[in-house]
Fold this sequence. Notes:
The chain has 123 residues and is mainly beta.
Amino acid sequence: MAQQRYDFPIPSADPVVGASRMVTPIWLKLFNAWRDRFGILTEQAQVYDPPNILSGATSSIAVAFAGAKPGDKAWATHSAVQSGIILLATATTNSVTVTFWNVTGAPIDLASGTLRVGVESTT
Length: 123
């Protein structure tokens, strides 16, 4: 990937927040450039108790996620995940499909925990 140059210096000598208690214009310009370059990240969380997952099997859940669309970067974590479980996340229209994949030789029954899902949209 080619490096992107910005037509302004990083304002290290300028305060981030001015006397008006607002982000100063030079820093706002930089933050907006970063947002445009790296996208907008949103996330949400819910309690989820995955079912028992047999050896080599998967279990999926579709999580409603307003604004998600195919091609967005999606990620997921679960607070009770353990060794042998791989989490996959795929953005679809207004949802994220989270797949729990058991790559061990035995069934795994994960405890209830917090499922966090995130989407990064660059468009």
